[in-house]
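Hello forum,

I keep getting stuck at the same step: I have a sequence, I want structure tokens, and every attempt I make locally crashes halfway through. Rather than fight my setup again tonight, could one of you with a working pipeline run this one for me? It's a single chain of 209 residues.
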Amino acid sequence: MVGCRRLLGASTIAISAMMLTTGCAWSAPAPTASPSASPTSSVAAMTPKEAKAAYKEIAKASCNAAQSLGVVEAGDTWRIVSVNKDQNYKDFSAAYFEEPDNYTLIWELDSLHSCADWYSFSMAEEAGQETSIEVTFDPTDSTFTTFEDFGDLGTSNYKYSVRDGKLFTATNLDPEHENTVTIEYGNISEYDRNILVTAVDRYLATLNN
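Reply #2:
Ran it on my machine without issues. Output:
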């Protein structure tokens, strides 16, 4: 994956291609307005460097929560469900559902908003480099805006609200594909777990044919 949200694996290449050719955008319509997020950082202005450092810690906390508690990321007609390793189903832990009946396994968590940017930060750090993510902070609503340019693959431009030190909503700022994703950690419902179960069962059934 480049830095944008993407789905990986043989069964998700078509979705990945769609996302990359549209500026890493989901095609689903924007959902209804989500609850306002409570600010978790100072309302004072930040320089881009300070914003990037603050956002890095938020990205880390978000991915840690997603891995330890599980996470559900949802648009208007689609959902991504990822459970922790103790709750996996037949050794699988993440799946994508889009109405009315599209179930797809997710092979790597860097396709999730809750983990994608932290993976970019951590991999760059391991390589002794600076990640290409640009970050700004808006003190009027305590949101962070990220931007990455992937050349021929397009750009990624998101505005994130934060709750309890973790990413809470992600709004794609591409004017042609603007939409908002809500991110909820833990308390995976039976409805959401069934997305994973259905995706796994359908995938395994294809291997037996």
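The helical segments are 13-21, 48-69, 113-126, 190-207. If your local run keeps crashing, start a new thread with the error log.
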